[in-house]
């Protein structure tokens, strides 16, 4: 996957350039060392004092370059990880409902948090390091050749050995990293499930059972990480041994050359110092190249979730203002199934005229929710025809559909913010619109009891509020937008009869509002408020016209 955009590429080139300059500068310390020792051996005070000045300038440049390189590196990591999280989040948000629900939400979380972290640790940081080390290696090689071709040849021999190892271990490390990333996603999914099920775990004394399950998945995850880390440790250990051996070999060979009078004491020290700077890059490259190649499966995983500008044209900004329902909604011969050859709905035809109140009854599993999903554009692979004001549903944008119909779901979702934000959902409304919605939805009935009024925090998923209060907030969301059709999908099932009755009655009283209530059992006292009652059985629909 493409991690860098145009600006990102420029930044990485600049950072790598700075890294290269820093590496070249740090290799030159050996030359300073050689000159200082040799001028001291010659008792050359003039060149010695010039060298002090040159060293001070050298240190100032080295420090500045080092800072700039570190700063740009961090900026690059920040930009890439931020862009990656943006792409993954947008990609997941743009999924169709079918695609979205095909994956556990914890997998999305894991991609967003764990995988992005892995990219930072096992791709970006090693990449910067490898480039710097590559330049350091080449510069050191140049200086070494200048000082002693023989010593360089000996070092090269060891180098060949050191480079063989990452090539051998690379593929294995890649496999282990992949297995770890997979387990980490499972670990996140399970932990999320356990936290979500806190009430059930507590209520059914499941703690020992859950603890056992958690311990097992925690251990498996840690084991997978350990398996990857063990291979990395083997890699690191071999490279450390080879590094120590090559430094010792240099010490012996160059000492021998000095004894033979072929090099000066300054060159000897410079060679020993260089052997360190020559081996370090090789060790670093050995340790980091497998990490970079091992990240490929994680990048593939992230790519599968990511949205790129080229994918799909970006959504238009939501249009403002209420939509109108003039001719109503018609369904003609609609047939749909989740699985081929197993239709949940069969030849459904119905009409919902503007301002009418309709009820859709049926046994559990009869297809009521499925029909609502088709009416609100959730699935589009149905046979038959659904029209809003004569326009086929497929021709309406999701935004337009959202402005025409709002659903009060069985489980109301509230964001972890206050009541006001849960009604407005990021849009701006006038005080009058807000007051009207608060009154019509019945929120005004419980508002005086809340110290902070509309700015009362609802808690995670609305846990600070009662079921009825949550329902009323969901109703207010639709009313404030003057959404012409309001669909209650068992919207009152989670609350007591009295509250359910009150909410339903409040809605049925709204003259211009078109209401479709989905329920198992009709509230007998409200029966007369409905214009039509549809009944869904075995995927087929029948209709009773009221007041005829
Ligand atoms: N996402 C899905 N994938 C596969 N089958 C599904 C899916 N959603 C629902 N079904 C199946 O479709 C059938 C109708 O389900 P639906 O939720 O529409 O019924 P319902 O009438 O709303 O039920 P209830 O009153 O219990 O909520 C059921 O057999 C159900 O198992």
TrEMBL record:
Question: Which UniProt keywords are present, listed alphabetically?
Answer: ATP-binding, Membrane, Nucleotide-binding, Transmembrane, Transmembrane helix
Gene3D superfamilies named in the record: ABC transporter type 1, transmembrane domain (1.20.1560.10), P-loop containing nucleotide triphosphate hydrolases (3.40.50.300)
Entry membrane topology: Multi-pass membrane protein
Q: Which domain of life is it from?
A: Bacteria
Q: Name one GO molecular function term.
A: ATP binding
Q: What is its main location?
A: membrane
Q: Which PANTHER family match?
A: ATP-BINDING CASSETTE SUB-FAMILY B MEMBER 10, MITOCHONDRIAL, ATP-DEPENDENT PERMEASE MDL1, MITOCHONDRIAL
Identification of the protein by name: ABC transporter ATP-binding protein
Originating species? Extibacter muris
């Amino acid at each position: 996957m493409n991690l860098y955009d145009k600006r990102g590429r420029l930044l990485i080139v600049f950072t790598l350039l700075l890294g290269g300059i820093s590496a070249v500068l740090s290799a030159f310390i050996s030359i300073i060392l050689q000159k200082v020792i040799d001028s001291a051996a010659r008792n050359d005070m003039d060149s010695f004092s010039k060298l002090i000045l040159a060293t001070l300038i050298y240190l100032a440049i080295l420090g500045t370059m080092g800072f700039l390189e570190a700063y740009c590196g961090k900026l690059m990591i920040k930009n890439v990880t931020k862009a990656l999280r943006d792409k993954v989040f947008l990609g997941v948000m743009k999924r169709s409902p079918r695609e979205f629900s095909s994956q556990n939400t914890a997998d999305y979380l894991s991609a967003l948090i764990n995988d992005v972290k892995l990219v930072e640790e096992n791709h970006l940081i090693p990449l910067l390091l490898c480039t710097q080390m590559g330049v350091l290696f080449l510069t050191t090689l140049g200086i070494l050749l200048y000082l002693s071709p023989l010593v360089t040849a000996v070092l090269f021999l060891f180098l060949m050995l050191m480079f063989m190892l990452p090539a051998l271990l690379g593929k294995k490390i890649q496999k282990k990293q992949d297995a770890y990333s997979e387990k980490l996603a499972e670990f996140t999914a399970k932990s999320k499930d356990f936290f979500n099920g806190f009430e059930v775990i507590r209520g059914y004394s499941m703690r020992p059972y859950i603890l056992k399950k958690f311990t097992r998945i925690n251990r498996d995850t840690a084991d997978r990480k350990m398996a990857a880390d063990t291979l990395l440790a083997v890699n690191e250990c071999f490279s450390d041994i080879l590094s120590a051996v090559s430094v010792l070999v240099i010490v012996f060979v160059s000492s021998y050359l000095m004894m033979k009078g072929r090099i000066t004491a300054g060159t000897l020290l410079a060679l020993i110092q260089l052997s360190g700077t020559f081996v370090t890059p090789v060790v670093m490259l050995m340790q980091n190249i497998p990490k970079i190649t091992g990240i490929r499966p994680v990048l593939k995983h992230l790519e599968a979730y990511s949205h790129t500008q080229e994918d799909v044209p970006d959504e238009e900004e939501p249009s403002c203002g209420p939509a109108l329902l003039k001719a109503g909604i018609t369904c003609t011969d609609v047939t749909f199934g989740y699985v081929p050859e197993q239709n949940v709905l069969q030849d459904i035809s119905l009409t919902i005229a503007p301002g009418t109140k309709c009820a859709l009854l049926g046994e559990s599993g009869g297809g009521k929710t499925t029909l609502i999903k088709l009416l609100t554009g959730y699935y589009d692979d149905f046979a038959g025809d659904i029209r809003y004001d004569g326009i086929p549903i497929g021709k309406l944008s999701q935004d337009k559909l959202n402005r025409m119909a709002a659903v009060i779901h069985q489980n109301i979702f509230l964001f972890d913010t206050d009541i006001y934000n849960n009604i407005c959902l990021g849009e701006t409304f006038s005080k009058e619109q807000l007051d009207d919605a608060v009154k019509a939805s019945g929120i005004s009935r419980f508002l005086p009891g809340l110290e902070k009024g509309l700015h009362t925090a609802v808690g995670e998923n609305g846990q600070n509020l009662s079921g009825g209060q949550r329902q009323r907030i969901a109703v207010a969301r639709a009313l404030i937008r003057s959404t012409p059709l309001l669909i209650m999908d068992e919207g009152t099932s989670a609350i007591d009869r009295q509250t359910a009755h009150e909410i339903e009655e409040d809605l049925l009283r709204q003259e211009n509002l078109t209401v479709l209530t989905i329920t198992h059992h009709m509230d007998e006292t409200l029966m007369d408020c409905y214009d039509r009652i549809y009944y869904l059985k075995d995927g087929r629909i029948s209709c009773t016209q009221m007041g005829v």
